[in-house]
Inverse folding.
């Protein structure tokens, strides 16, 4: 609930204004009941007053009620989208700035599901359900007071509906909350399975795993169905419990009115008003009962969002950008992944000298890519240090690597790292202000001039993870993107693995010719082309 209150803070006054408007609509609803009684009593001769004036007042009250409710719905929609965007931006920021331990805590689809569906549930609860629940409570209290004004004995009978509703709600509250959380988790697993299977459908088909994938989806859906049916059962029992109480209350009020009409103790206007008032009490209680599942869903979604918000965050500080081509000094470096005892790197030391090209070589799985991630401060070492320096002889120029020094690196990761969109959009990720000439120069340095010969040139569309381009083409565009980024250290992590020997040599020659002195180049590779061009070799 503290989490919900924090989220409410951004739209607190707007939610209060929405509640005020709904209070006006509720007051108009109760006033309509009072004046409908008066109109009927005037028409039947129990009250001596102008009928026309009373009718016009009744029409005015109804118009106010309708207009207020229409505006409330419009206003609720506005503040809901405002709150949704603010909360999503905040959660997205938390996710992007969270520390990484080499393994993502949540599946990407589950994260997206939390940022879409869970945020929708929470914002609707904050902006719609909370003010409506508060106003409904006020309306119910006011309706009970009016009931006592009409008949205190009957009011006491009808008030027993409220404890029945509360008891019925408490019977299934905890189980509903647990089931809702479980259903949301299963839904995330289903979305993740669908995304990954469709994303790699060619692999799934070639491995003959279509049937297995469909069977896994069927099992997940069956599990979701079972949990949903269980939740529906609890909800149906509660609604049935309340419906019986409400029907009995209305029947008692109707019989009371009929008997009162017979003995003359009740006027037609009073009976009309009282039957309406029964609805004015029962409807808020029924609405409050409906808010209980919404409350449960909101708490479950809030817990899922808090899991993202509570992820450890990278330290925030201003970028530390070193001039020229910084060197990189590693001393006694050790690292082991979270939850594993064996060390990926142990007491590793090396000096990547400024303005030189160094090739990092070693067997697969011995920590070459991990070393690159440690340089980028994506991972934190368990021992030793990594420092950037400009002048080797002056220790005061050394800066420990951190998220703030990440701006010094131009990085090309393994595999296809293009995002969906155009080639231009991918390139501009590294330098949004890059000119057309700078884009073309980067493509040339990466031997990716083929882009300019495509029908749409730089505006050629890239599908998800670079589909529509060959692996080698995607790698060269990724290299061009990195070359546009500011910073004096270029890290190529198996960045030319999909290129033929001739193209790879051309790419590396162009990079060294262009940046051989102005940048420090670190090339993780098994290929001979990089080794032949390197000034030094680092053996892992």
């Amino acid at each position: 609930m503290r989490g919900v209150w924090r989220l409410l803070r951004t739209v607190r006054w707007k939610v209060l204004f929405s509640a005020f408007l709904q209070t006006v609509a509720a007051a108009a609803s109760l006033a309509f009941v009072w004046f409908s009684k008066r109109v009927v009593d005037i028409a039947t001769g129990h009250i001596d007053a102008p009928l026309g004036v009373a009718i016009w007042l009744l029409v005015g009250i109804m118009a106010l009620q309708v207009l207020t409710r229409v505006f409330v719905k419009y206003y609720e929609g506005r503040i809901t989208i405002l709150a949704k965007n603010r909360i999503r931006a905040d959660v997205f920021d938390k996710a992007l700035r969270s520390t990484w331990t080499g393994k993502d805590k949540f599946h990407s689809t589950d994260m997206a599901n939390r940022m879409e569906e869970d945020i929708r549930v929470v914002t609707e609860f904050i902006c719609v359900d909370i003010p409506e629940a508060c106003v409904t409570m006020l309306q119910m209290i006011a309706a009970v007071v009016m009931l006592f004004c009409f008949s205190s004995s009957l009011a006491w009978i009808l008030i027993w509906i409220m404890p029945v509703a509360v008891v019925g709600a408490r019977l299934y509250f905890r189980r509903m909350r647990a089931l809702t959380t479980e259903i949301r988790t299963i839904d995330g697993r289903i979305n993740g399975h669908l995304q990954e299977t469709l994303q790699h459908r060619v692999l799934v088909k070639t491995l003959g795993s279509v049937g297995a994938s469909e069977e896994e989806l069927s099992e997940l859906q069956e599990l979701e169905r079972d949990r949903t049916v269980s939740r529906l059962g609890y909800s149906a029992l509660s609604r049935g419990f309340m419906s019986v109480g409400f029907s009995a209350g209305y029947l008692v009020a109707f019989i009371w009115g009929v008997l009162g009409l017979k003995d003359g103790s009740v006027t037609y206007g009073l009976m009309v008003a009282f039957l309406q008032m029964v609805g004015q009490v029962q409807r808020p209680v029924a609405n409050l009962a409906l808010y209980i599942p919404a409350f449960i869903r909101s708490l479950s979604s809030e817990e899922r969002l808090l899991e993202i918000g509570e992820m450890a965050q990278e330290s925030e500080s201003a970028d530390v950008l070193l001039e020229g081509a910084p060197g990189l000094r590693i001393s006694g470096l050790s690292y082991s992944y979270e939850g594993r005892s064996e060390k990926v790197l142990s007491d590793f030391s090396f000096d990547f000298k400024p303005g030189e090209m160094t090739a990092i070589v070693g067997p697969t799985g011995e920590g070459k890519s991990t070393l690159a991630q440690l340089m980028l401060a994506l991972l934190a070492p368990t021992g030793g240090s990594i420092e950037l320096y400009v002048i080797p002889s002056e220790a005061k120029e050394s800066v420990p690597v951190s998220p703030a020094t990440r701006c010094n690196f131009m990085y090309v990761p393994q595999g296809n790292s293009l995002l969906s969109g155009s080639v231009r959009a991918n390139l501009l990720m590294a330098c949004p202000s890059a000119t057309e000439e700078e884009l073309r120069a980067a493509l040339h340095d990466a031997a990716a001039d083929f882009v300019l010969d495509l029908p749409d040139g730089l505006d050629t569309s890239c599908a998800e993870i670079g589909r529509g381009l060959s692996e080698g083409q995607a790698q060269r565009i990724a290299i061009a993107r990195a070359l546009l980024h500011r910073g004096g250290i270029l890290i190529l992590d198996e960045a030319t693995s999909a290129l033929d020997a001739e193209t790879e040599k051309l790419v590396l020659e162009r990079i060294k010719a262009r940046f051989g002195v102005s940048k420090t180049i670190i090339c993780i590779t098994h290929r001979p082309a990089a080794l032949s061009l390197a000034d030094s070799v680092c053996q892992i």
Remarks:
- The chain has 16 helices and eleven strands.
- The first strand starts at residue 327 and ends at 335.
